[in-house]
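User: Fold this; tokens only.

Assistant: Input:
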Amino acid sequence: MTSAHAAPHADSLATAGSTSSAGAAVHRVSVLLYSDDITTRDAVRAAAGRRPARDVEVTRWLECATAFAVTEALDAGGWDVVVLDGEAAKNGGLGLCRELKNEIYDCPPVLVLTGRPQDGWLAAWSLADDAVSHPLDPIKVAEAIAGLARTRVAAR
């Protein structure tokens, strides 16, 4: 089960790109979000907002409730940042992250949501690019998504 959300001001630049606005480059990115818990998905979207940083604008979200939907969406391409809930039931985001990093060429940067701060070693094992622990701090979530978006755009 998936749900797509476009930002209200999303136009033809729905994939990674940058545009000049008053001298500052704005990176427009798309984010794939996986959690079996709708409240976690809502918390991540609310924390990141439309603009997690001055230079990063999220133009498209895709919410996935199953690991199969995540792999299908990543196979289709077009995602700049992936957020995986490590506490998801059946297929946790940590194991899914490791699988994606090992199987998908040029896998987008992945942010994993861990159950507690002490689970940072699990995030490292999963090959995640960044991790934020529950309870979710909106500032840390926004900073992590913006940082990963900048990394992805710079790599292109």
